[in-house]
Automatic annotation (TrEMBL):
It comes from Loktanella fryxellensis. Residues 11-251 form the ABC transporter domain. The lineage of its organism: Bacteria, Pseudomonadati, Pseudomonadota, Alphaproteobacteria, Rhodobacterales. Keywords: Amino-acid transport, ATP-binding, Nucleotide-binding, Transport. PANTHER family: ABC TRANSPORTER SUBSTRATE-BINDING PROTEIN, HIGH-AFFINITY BRANCHED-CHAIN AMINO ACID TRANSPORT ATP-BINDING PROTEIN LIVF. This is Amino acid/amide ABC transporter ATP-binding protein 2, HAAT family. One of its GO terms (biological process) is L-amino acid transport. It holds the Pfam family ABC_tran.
Length: 273
């Protein structure tokens, strides 16, 4: 169990605002912390601002005509806005984009090898890391010679995480790993994330719409709505919170409800009152 009071903070996002195209205000003062050795979940529905937050952290907003206009993002004492995405990777922060993004025409193994490009480590060290990735993802070993474009969605998600691991990251920003995958595969991938966290000490900031799964695997969670953090706390507490149960887990004292029923209530949420 991660003792939150004892751990060092790797990443601190303080009150950031993000604007797209000079006018569209998308993040309206988001603050969060990622402790060393933790799995931190960033939760929320469609368009809440999860991806925008991750891209702000890894300094990838420029290509989207977006900018951080207020607040600060500090990784180990350095402002990330002053670092290029590549410099950030060298400091141990890497993002796994939403929608997987493997190079379709390369094999799985070639994809993994592209993840080692920022490293000056010798061949033997890179080979050892490749072996480590295959140990965590046995399916990737089986598919190592397959062209990535022909592998399944789950294998491509594993490939994207495996490629990030090849940069020897301290922190992985993982965007919506469950997207489009069958429940069993989602469990498998989250199980591997947990192993990587516990055995390799990789810290995660995990953006997810799938609150149920994310809160089972994470230590701490933040819930975003319309660009604001509306609730945060240890994952175990969020799982038991009545509002989270009702609006995000689809369960309430009245019994199980489908997500659609819950959303159609349109009752004012208690935490916004
Ligand atoms: N490049 C962009 N230009 C303008 N608006 C954008 C851009 N990217 C995202 N947005 C808007 O910013 C808001 C937050 O989007 P974001 O992708 O961060 O949400 P999200 O929480 O990741 O959602 P999802 O769960 O659907 O991935 C949305 O209203 C979206 O339409
Ligand atoms: Mg997103």
């Amino acid at each position: 169990m991660l003792d939150e009071a004892q751990t060092e903070t790797l990443l601190e996002v303080s009150n950031i605002e993000v604007i797209y195209n000079h006018v569209i205000l998308v993040l309206k003062g988001v603050s969060l912390k990622v402790p060393k050795g933790g799995i931190t979940a960033l939760l929320g529905g469609n368009g809440a601002g999860k991806t925008t937050t991750l891209k702000a952290i890894s300094n990838l907003l420029h290509s989207e005509r977006g900018a951080v206009t207020k607040g600060s993002i500090i990784y180990r004492g350095e402002r990330v806005q002053e670092l290029s995405p590549e410099a950030l990777v060298r400091r141990g922060v890497i993002q796994v984009m939403e929608g997987r993004h493997c190079f379709e025409h390369l094999t799985i193994e070639e994809n993994l090898m592209t993840g080692a490009y920022t490293r000056s480590a010798g061949k033997a060290a890179v080979a050892a890391d490749l072996e480590m990735v295959y140990t965590y993802f046995p399916r990737l070993r089986e598919r190592r010679k397959s062209q990535a474009g022909y592998t399944s969605g789950g294998e491509q998600q594993m490939c994207a995480i495996g490629r990030a691991l090849m940069s020897k990251p301290e922190t992985i920003l993982l965007d919506e790993p469950s997207m489009g995958l069958a429940p069993q595969l989602v469990e498998e991938i989250f199980g591997i994330v947990k192993d990587l966290n516990e055995r390799e000490g990789v810290s995660f900031l995990l953006a997810e719409q799938n609150t149920n799964v994310a809160l089972r695997f994470a230590h701490h969670g933040y819930i975003l709505e319309s660009g604001r953090v509306v609730m945060e706390g240890p994952a175990a507490e969020l799982r038991e919170n009545p509002d989270v149960k009702e609006f995000y887990l689809g369960v309430s004292d009245a019994g199980r409800k489908s997500f659609r029923d819950v959303r159609s209530y349109r009752r004012r949420k208690r935490w916004l009152a």
